[in-house]
Amino acid sequence: MDTTEIVALILFLIIWGAYFLIIVIQYFQSTAETERIVTYNVRTAFFLPAYALMLFITVFKPYAFAGLNIFITFMEGYSFYCFFMMLVYNLGGPVKAVEAYNKVERELACCRGCCPSDGLAFYKRIRWALFHFVFTRTVVSIAAALATLAHNERVARALGALFSVINVVILFSCLIHILLFCKFSLSTITPLSFLMTCDVFIR
Q1: Which has more pLDDT, 56 or 115?
Q2: DSSP secondary structure of 13-56
Q3: Fewer Cβ atoms within 10 A, N terminus or C terminus of the chain?
Q4: Is 185 part of any domain?
Q5: Which of 16-20, 110-114, 157-161, 162-166 has the lowest mean pLDDT?
Q6: What is the tally of helices (H) and strands (E) in the chain?
Q7: What pLDDT score was predicted for residue 187?
Q8: pLDDT score, position 93
């Protein structure tokens, strides 16, 4: 193995070792009250070792990147979905989240004109954005991987660029919705609950 492969192997082992250590420590210290938050934290953080696995394989098999990108795209969406569900859980569930949104001052929840006035509509919009983040981006990544098989290199590059732009647009759209929901959550969640979540996540 050359130097690049050795470094990739060391980083892979460090990241996966740290992730498993986090799992053991968090679940060992979790209680019935914090188990759900710990579960969402662990699932949200899984994209880090997933990235490490993809990069490790790519170092040894560069041609496998297009196929592996499908896996990492799905894991990104799944991680954001788990993060969103952790926020909803902190707010007391979907019903409580919608009720809290309807009560909070709009200036605290969103930038002017960004969000609907109805909490249920806001919640559905975020769920729809997450659907595109998990499902649509994965389908586009599959199409991008298939595009690399085109016999014409120019066509393959053009299709790859097109699918990349589509994925970036979907990514930023979902990130904006998640950030707005985070802003809303921080304006309604109790300081004690928020600090408990941070404490569980850091531990």
Answers
A1: 56
A2: HHHHHHHHHHHHHHHHH--TTTHHHHHHHHHHTTHHHHHHHHHH
A3: N
A4: yes
A5: 110-114
A6: 10, 0
A7: 58
A8: 83
